[in-house]
Input
Amino acid sequence: MPVTLGLSGFGRIGRNLFRLLYTSDDIRIGAISDVADPEALVYLLRYDSILGRFPDRVAWKNGRLTTPGGGIPMLSGKEAESPRWADLGVDYVIEATGRDCTRAEIEGFGRTKGSIHFTAAKPLPPALLDELIRTRVADLAVEGSE
Output
């Protein structure tokens, strides 16, 4: 069964990740969120100035990014600010907005299995770093006991 990812941010990073993962059998995109106009984002995916045209038909229809393989929910505006990822069937969230997230925002990813963050290389605040390390150590301890 493939892992389902949510893309938070569909700018340059999010669209490039979508291109990389689009044909994967092991990973599927379950939802996309971005505060920008979804029709504009689909246009930028279709006609990328660096990578060229997207290899398949893509369109914006009824709140979804449609491809020959189906439709992917695309959240925009206020609903993109705090999506309920787990309710959308997402296992992991890729935070690709490029902005720093607060602890509350990271926790807002909710009942997913985890998240991956693409942000500028800045040091994390010590309290957040400590929490991330404690969480990962606890995860490893649980995995090691199975």
About this structure: The first strand starts at residue 3 and ends at 8.
